[in-house]
Amino acid sequence: MPNYVLNIRRFSPESGEPAHWEKFEVEMEGHRPVLDAILHARNTEDGSIGIRCSCQAAICGSCGVRINGNPALACNTLLRDAVATAKDGATIDIEPMGNMPVIKDLIVDMDAVHWKKVQRVVPWLIPAGEPPEREYVVPHEAMVDVTQTMACIHCGVCVSDCLSMEVDPEFVGPAAHAKAYRFVGDPRDAATETRLRDLAEDPHGLYDCTHCFKCVEVCPKGVSPMNQIMRLRRRATGDFKIKDANNGYRHEKAFVSIIEKWGTLHEAKLLPDSYGEGIFGKLNPEAQKQLIASAPTAVRGVLSGKVPPLKVIHHHKLPDQKKIKDIYKKIHGRDDRIELNLYIVGEDADALAAESAPAEAAATAADGGES
Amino acid sequence: MKVAYWPGCVSRGFTPELHGSMEKIAPKVGIELLELDRANCCGAGVIAEHNQELADTLNARTFALAQQSGGAMMMNICSTCQGAQSECQERLDASTEYRDLINENLAPEKLSYEKGITNKNFLWLLVEDIGLEKLASLVKRPLDGLRIAPFYGCYIIRPTERLAYREHPERDQYLEQVIDVIGAESVAYTGSHKCCGFPVITMNKETSLTQAGRHLGDAIDAGADALVTPCPLCHLNLDLQQPEAKKFVNRELGIPVLHFPQLIGLALGLEPKELGMGKHVVSTKAVAAKVAAMAVAA
Q: Residue A213 and residue B90: Cβ atoms within 8 Å?
C-alpha cells in the first residue's frame, strides 16, 4: 500500500507555541480521500489534531482546508490527486483555510467571517404578503434558475481564497453574494430591488468583486459565486437601473455605449464617463473629486508617451461600426434578455458523443504509437 | 505559421508598446500576423455582465472573422481578451441551438461562427506551438542575471476547466518556463497568480490598488528586477497606477513591469527602445542598462 506524507499546519492558541508544520506518514490506498488520512493520523498518532468534519461525502461542508495551497474539501480530494499537486512531488501540505481566523490546527472560525457575511444578505424569503392558503406556485424555470446557488453547502472554500476579501476583509464575499442571488432570483421574494440596492450601494458589496474567478475555480459544488455576482449586477443595472455610489452602473453603461459607438474601447472616455454621466454628471462634486484624484495618473500617462494627447480626444470607429450598432439594436430590442446557463442546461448530448468518439480514436492511435 | 491576430483594444490604446513589440518579434519567432482590424472589443466581461447574448454575439463575430482569415488559429496578446472570449466560446460551443441563435444575429453581415476555433494567448502559442526548444535556439541575447517576477493575470489561469488545463496542465507555469529558457531567472513570490485589481479600479480604488501594491512589493522583496505580464490590463494597474498604488500599501515601490513580448524581444536581440520600453510610467532604465551590458550573438 502506498505511503503518504501529510504536512499539517498545527496551531493551538492556548499552548503559547507559534504555528508550525508537523509531518505524519499514513499508509493508505490512493483512491481514499485526504480526510481519511488526516483522521487516521489523528486516531493512530496524535489525538490532538484539530479538524472539523461530519458527513465525509461532500454534503455537510465541514472539512474545508487548503491542500498544497489550494482550498478544497478534504473529503473529496483523493490522496493520489493531492500528491500530484504537491510542491515537492511527495509531501501533501494541509493548512487551515484563509481569510478566517484559526481556532485550532485546521479549524477556522466560520462564525466570525462566513456566517456573519451570510447573515448580512438577509438569507431568508421576504414574502409580499400573507402566505397563500396552500403552497406557493412558481414557474419551474424560475426555480431552475436559482438551483445553482442552492447547491452551496457553505463550506467556506470560496471565502478562504477570495482575492478581494484578502485586501478588503469587509467585502461581502462570494458565498454571501451567491446566497443573495438565491433570493433575488426567487419570484416569491418581494424585496428584490431592496436587496439589489443594498448590495450595490455597499462599497464592499457587488462592485467590490474583482472578477478573479478564484471562487469559480475552487467551489466543490459548481456554484460559480462570481457568476452569481455578475447576475446580481445585471439585475441591478438592467432591470432596476440602480445608480449606485460606487460607479458600477455608470461604468457598465459607459463601457457598453463606447463599444456601441466605436467598436473598440475608447479608454480616455471610459474613466471620466464612469465617474459622471455627461457634462452635468461630471460637474457633480463627487465626480469632480474622483476626476481630480485621477488627474496625476492621466498626466503620467501622457508624459510617458503611453497616451498621446490626440488619442485622448480622437478614437477611430471600426469600418463596419454600423453592423455592430445593428447587433446592439436587435438584442436590446428583445423583450427578455437571453441567457444560457451551462450548469442548468448542460452541453449538447449529440455534440458530446461526436466529440468523444474522435478523441477516443486519437487516444487509441497515440497508445499504438507509443508501444 | 499564419495566425488570425487579435491585438485587443488596450494594446492599441494605452499600451501601444505592447502591440508594437508583438509586431517586432512575430517574424523572428516565425509567426505571420493576419490582423483582425474589423473585429470588436471582447467586452472584458463587462458586456457579458450587461447582456450575455450581446457579448456572445460580439465575440462570435470576432471568431467568424478569424475563421475567414485563413490563419491556422486565432492569437491574442491579452489575458483578459483570452478569458472573456473563452467564456463566450464555452457557451457557443456547448449548444447548437444557442449557436444558431447567435449566428442569426451575425447573418446580416454574412458572418457565421463554426464551432471549435482555437484561440490562444501568445504565451500559450509560443510554448505549445513554437516550443521552448525552438525558442531557445532563437535566443540571441541570453538574459543572464536578470531576475524576472511572472504575473499571469487571472483570465488565463482560471477557471482551469474552461481554459483547457486538462489538455495543457502546465499553462500556469509557462511564464517561469519561458523566463528560464531565455536565460533569465524567474523569481518566486506570492502574487504571481493573484489578481492585479484592475477590474475594480473605477469602483473601489482601495481594493484595486492594494492588490496591485502588495504584489509589486512582494516582487521587490523577492529581489526581482522587473515583472513580466501577458496582460495589458494588469500592466495598467501595475505600471500606470504604480505611483498611486504605493499610497495604499504605505511603502516605496518602483519596479518596472514588462509586457511579455518585450521580454521575448530583449532575448531575441532587439533593443529596449525598439520595444517601446521608454513608454512606461515606471522607468525601465535599470533593466535596459543591465541588458545593454549583455552580449548579443551575431
A: no
